[in-house]
Write a structure and sequence with these properties.
CATH class of the largest domain in chain A: Alpha Beta
CATH architecture of the largest domain in chain A: Alpha-Beta Barrel
Helix content of chain A: 25-40%
Structural class of chain A: alpha/beta
Shape of chain A: elongated
Number of strands of chain A: 14
Distance between the termini of chain A: 44 Å
Number of helices of chain A: 11
Largest interface: A-B, 45 and 46 residues
CATH topology of the largest domain in chain A: TIM Barrel
Oligomer: homotetramer
């Protein structure tokens, strides 16, 4: 850690900082510049609490040198991690498109969906049984019944399932239904107790980015899961909140190459929630794959106009199929496949 | 709800929208303008799902006319709600300053804190036993032991306590320790399962604004609690996330008059977390009270430089006392008291 | 325009709004709903001033139905506009990559740059003679001498030039040097006097998006140019300001399909300024083309480490060449060419 | 400047950075930590171009230690600067409320306004003759005729005038009309040619914050004016752009104490443009004064419902008068006067 002292900081103040650094077991290196004194803390700086240092008299500001995340960092694990989801690899050369409806509605709707997802060439299926809704008066999902419907429909096509866990008390039920990938939604990215619980199991976890989470906070949220022992973590960019009102969120494509540099874990993108409109999905999907994403979560509904939730962002089966073709072409250009 | 059709929408498309509106039990009023057709849905529009309407062919966009929140809305409850916290009124003419340290550290620290809080003229005390920390490697709070320490220290001074609940499984323990006000933190504002649980009890709840929550999402989060039966809800503005990096968050003072207009429930402000630096706290506290806040959550630590968490945003006892004086003056100008 | 009255608005207030609408020469249609009265203003709503309506007693809010932009809107001009830049088409099937250094430095640097730009397959060249710099103490560009250097260097390779105009008093000089495309920078997107002046000539104008401009404000800024008579306008997305600090801006790829829907004018992207780091440029460039951009503004410097400005975002000649290959592949997938 | 090298940077890379630092005439201090090497550049770091350093091989990132602004910085000028505006002091103990309409409309409207402004106890008057409007089809201000109307009306009451300059070619006209304070609007905060021109005169300048300008960019924009020789600069906070849509902007009160710490120049606030609604103005005005602002720019119109521009944010004369009373009370609490 580098600590910059205020212009005119006294010797006693400098001494105070050096003393505090040593209390934490690190060494201090003092350089007196023409306008400021700078102190370097040498050793394992994760032991130092930046806020405590900043509160010391005479300190202007401080900067971490070492990244605060460790297990998820590419710095300590150079190769890409490829996660095995019931035989489907995620994070390798092959790109995975995870298709399916926003919500589980009925057995028929899920069976139809599974058929179309499979037919389009997807190897994984998504669907929500528990739905985080802004309003307490809106449809909250089918719950456990929805898990049952989803499991059966997906099994008919041999598709592993991805579904969202909101409440820590439901984890055992998710394990009972052999949910193949647990999704942690954007509103729960920093629900630390939930992260700690999924850290104790080995089921792969999709960690969606918080609505306005920084890259660093997101990596640290993943570090919570990893610190518990579960290293099967998949980052999912889903758009961030900005001042723009034309679309729901701004898909942050820059996050894709940045995450691929910072972490060895797979990175996927949700183009459906990002834009919020079905007509934006193909362009955003192509952009995500072109930027290096390892996969997509795409909403598809057999009859979008009749969907119970987020209807206007779902593709219909035909549109999904066509999109898969385009994505295959782009994948090839960058040396990958769909 | 007002539905605007695309330029050139066909009669069949207009008919389709009218039909859908009627399926939900509302009436439709079609006005054909020079460039667009506009359809008004007349009746209880909370029954209509905006996303389903937007997905219909030919629809350009739609607008809710009625606010989606009801129990928390001032529209349906004109007078201010005054919440009684063990005899201390919040939301009335008297303003409440809730002082105390960020974290519970030791029995001695909490007893000292309680003494100073009381001496400064505060009637409620704050302190965290469970701490949401960005890093899994940082101090996570003293947990249940912290609740015990806090309860005892506050009882010595007869101060009701305010503390954060993060995990739904801890609610019973909070009730056992007779926590007087449960705080829902910024990261959990849309942890809907947690909101539903605190909706089932009657303990007052401070609902902090999510890091980038809109006023409307925040009111809807409160509506989750209210819909369960607990109407003792206190909104707490704590700064929002913006592009500015000089300070941690931007304290949104405009939210104060806006919430006072939209809801009958009390509104308080946390100037300590907003700015992130102790030297900003007095100015932000004065601004909040001048703008009409019903109270403040202010961090005070007996020895800020030794605090275990968020050290550089805590006032020392002397600073808190001085601030109370200034706030008293401002309260008087606007016809209130501290 | 749709005007929603407050719950409980009086008949006199409703009458007042109707009267005001009629004063502006429009007709009014009053619908009384169960909770709110809604008034529709029928006729050319561009004549109505929304702020004046909103200020009338009893009005809760209002909504424009017709888009405020006209000349630039695709609604009134269905086909793509293809702009001819000295024989190079922009906005058609062929995608244009505009390469070159951030700043004009020396004759040798520009001649080398022009050679590399041409060799990489680009048909247009960029370079800044006037530089908007945050600090008054930083290099402000070579000025008129820079225009001269750039013109000569580009002419040797037969490349049309793109360069930024900051000061309205410099326009004549730009015309003297036959600048082929005038760039209006992000800080001047709403410098309305500058927009009006470039509206009076016929030179193509690249209009960069303001740092935090909405899509609608951006289209309206273009409308300023178009209203003056110059319809040769090219939109350039260059990243928007958000809370994220890892990269300089967030490239808003969603803006690409949205603009292609809203306007008939070409849309290009500046991946270099968006991310701010050379290593991010290939991924962002691929994403932009995949999302449907008509071109790119890419920084290339013969020796990036020696550049006088924005050194760490420039590609070297080899990297530009390689990128051109990848972009060609993606263009083909979506039925276009480079 | 502190330069952090990548983990694993080679000796040659470290040597390269040291060499570059020395080329700029500074000294280098190399500390090799356990995980990273850190290089300190010692000397006048304003000479170093951060982007050039960041582009060198092996550099991870760098941090300025010294602030980039100098003339406007409190670090180099400890006392508050009090600007004399025709005998009215701004920046001292006395707070100045600048009242008046958004736009100059007619002679009668301005004379009435001036009378009310004076009667309310304001000592300075505002009014716009040139209006920056999002739409080219909206009222653009009365122009030079407006200046004439304003000058005459204000002179009748002996009020100095504040009005916005948008076009550098109009500066001479502003000087002819003896405009007492020139306002640079939010869209022109980084119109560097305009800043340079007002830097050459001695008329006081109100520099509004750009819609999403950082504190640092804002201080640097002022430094442009100061570097030209004009030190009569007044900062005006007017709300920043965020994701919140309930109000036009978020008034950033935190900027007030922060600017008072960073600069010796006066800081005022525009509560009218911030919120965008007249009913929010009193709360925001009180908050601004309580947080330490040296003055306010408040819109007042004799008949708000008939205003030609921004009607719903103007107070009426009675509301302004009442507000002045409240502000006087708050000023007293913090040892100032109105």
């Amino acid at each position: 850690m580098i600590i910059v002292m205020e212009n005119g900081a006294s010797d006693a103040q400098i001494e105070g900082v050096v003393k505090k650094i040593k209390e934490f077991g690190l060494d201090a290196n003092v350089s007196r510049g023409t306008e400021r004194t700078v102190i370097g803390a040498i050793g394992d700086e994760r032991k130092l609490d930046q806020e405590m240092i900043d509160a010391l008299p005479g300190v202007e500001n401080s900067m971490h040198i070492v990244k605060p995340y460790k297990i998820v960092a590419r710095e300590w694990h150079k190769e890409n991690t490829v996660i095995d989801i019931k035989g489907v690899p995620l994070g390798g050369k092959q790109i995975q498109i995870i298709g399916g409806p926003c919500s589980v509605e009925t057995q028929a709707q899920m069976e139809q969906s599974a058929k179309f997802v499979k037919a389009a060439g997807c190897r994984l299926m998504r669907g929500g049984a528990f739905k985080p809704r802004t309003s307490p008066y809106a449809f909250q999902g089918k719950g456990v019944e929805g898990l049952d419907i989803f499991r059966k429909a997906a099994d008919q096509q041999g598709l592993p399932i991805v579904t969202e866990l909101m409440d820590v008390r439901m984890l055992d039920t998710f394990l009972e239904y052999n949910v193949d990938v647990i999704q942690i939604g954007t509103r729960n990215m920093q629900n630390f107790d939930l992260l700690k619980e999924v850290g104790k199991i080995s089921t792969p976890v999709i960690l969606k980015r918080g609505m306005s989470a920084t890259i660093s906070e997101w990596l640290m949220a993943a570090e919570y899961i990893a610190a518990g022992g579960n290293h099967n973590i998949i980052f999912c960019e889903r758009g961030i909140r900005t001042y723009e009102t034309y679309y729901r969120n701004v898909l942050d494509v820059t996050a894709i190459p940045v995450l691929k540099k910072e972490t060895h874990l797979p990175v996927i993108v949700d183009p459906s929630h990002a834009g919020g409109k079905a007509w934006m999905v193909p362009a955003l999907s192509r952009a995500a794959i072109a930027a290096g994403a390892d996969g997509l979560l795409v909403e598809m509904h057999p009859k979008p106009c009749e969907a119970w939730c987020d209807a206007d962002q779902a593709l219909n089966p035909e549109e999904l199929k066509q999109l898969m073709g385009e994505l295959g072409g782009i994948a090839q250009v960058i040396g990958r496949s769909i």
